[in-house]
Amino acid sequence: MLRADTLTRGAFAIHVRRHAKLGLHKTVIKSALPVINAAIASPLVWRVDLGKITCTPPRAKLGAIFRIQAARITLIFTDQHRRQQFLICAREVASAPTIVEALQTVINGHS
Fold this sequence. Notes:
By secondary structure, the chain is an alpha+beta fold. The protein has helices at about 35-40, 95-110; strands at about 5-10, 15, 25-30, 45-55, 65-70, 70-80, 80-90. The strands form two sheets. The chain has a four-stranded antiparallel beta sheet, covered by helices on one side. Helix 1 packs antiparallel against helix 2 (about 95-110). The two termini are about 20 Å apart.
């Protein structure tokens, strides 16, 4: 489970401490933190890379978009203010759809 660091990142993002499954970039939008915690807690996930945070364009579709390419899952998470892309690497190609289903359950439970 990721824990917040003491570094400030504005009103919509937090800086998290190091984790064995986490890449070099350690800033995540607050609304996506439960999803990333679920991905990190899964034994099927090998690595999670946090991408850039951008502003949400007007009339953007809110929620999550998943793309599966072999063992790589690209998650684009959009809330009212910010958008961030995540790269989730599965341990096996066959487990990628299972990971996506688990993460969608977390997203629907927190909506």
